[in-house]
């Protein structure tokens, strides 16, 4: 599918590490592993805001037979960063984004980077960067964020902006909520979903007087559907509702599930916060086709009933967005994975939508998608 505008607008080369929250805080050289998976919203004055995930990694993580990782910890000064070391014999480093601890009876991992969020202001059409707000960066500030703050998703409900993030720590891999009146000054409200419930997307509007959200609980065990079912067991997009955006009850009915007709969505999860159209809630989500260590990530879409979002009005088995190697070719020397596009934001722009995605876990991609795509 061709689009009028489909480009990378922000990459690791655009990040000034001298202005990072980690600058001068650790005795080791770092670099930007990725500047990607941006939450997106429209600011009160019309420009677009990307909340970019900056994954800052150690240039030389392996020293003296140990692999190191960055960790935030509380201090009298509000917080410091430190380095933890594990013997190489105890870890598996096959995935460049993380390392797995050997033994123990269950999966335990640590990250090769620590993530923080960088507000990047774009023009109203999303075609170019207007300003980078380092003074508004969001970094760890609680023990449940000690390994980083990841993957912002921003929704505007009424006059309030709601931003969910993944907070990573040994305590739990949780979803946290930030709120704002202007999308510039954010207040951390704390944990709203517990361990390994990722990709929380708050609907941009109320349903039946309540806040609604898509969620994705993860696990290593799923029960099989009956033989011949149109559905495939595995990670799915669930639903929850809340009276205040803080306290969430899972919905009794399932949401968007992996379909047995295709392996391209064998794994799936949320993408951009659902927005209301005249045909229902438009949901952009990701499906993962198994391949190698990471798989192939693509963006798909569904229209959900405006009164009961568990009802899928229409869904496409054909991808809306696919990984675009041509876009990342100028960054070839920085790439560590490929075959990934991960959509994280959408904004109305008249006859089209501005869609924000992370490309190759490396850079921020903006695509103009005509609204006619969803009406055919």
Q: In the residues, how many domains can be counted?
A: 1
In the CATH hierarchy, the architecture is: 5 Propeller
Instruction: Extract low-pLDDT stretches.
Output: none
Count of helical regions: 1
Topology:
Blueprint: E1 6-10, E2 30-42, E3 48-58, E4 62-63, E5 66-73, E6 80-87, E7 91-92, E8 98-101, E9 109-111, E10 113-122, E11 129-132, E12 148-157, E13 160-168, E14 173-180, E15 187-193, E16 197-202, E17 211-217, E18 238-242, E19 249-250, E20 267-277, E21 280-289, E22 296-304, E23 312-315, H1 325-328, E24 341-348, E25 352-359, E26 363-370
Antiparallel strand pairs: 1-26, 2-3, 3-10, 4-5, 5-6, 7-8, 8-9, 10-11, 12-13, 13-14, 14-15, 16-17, 17-18, 18-19, 20-21, 21-22, 22-23, 24-25, 25-26
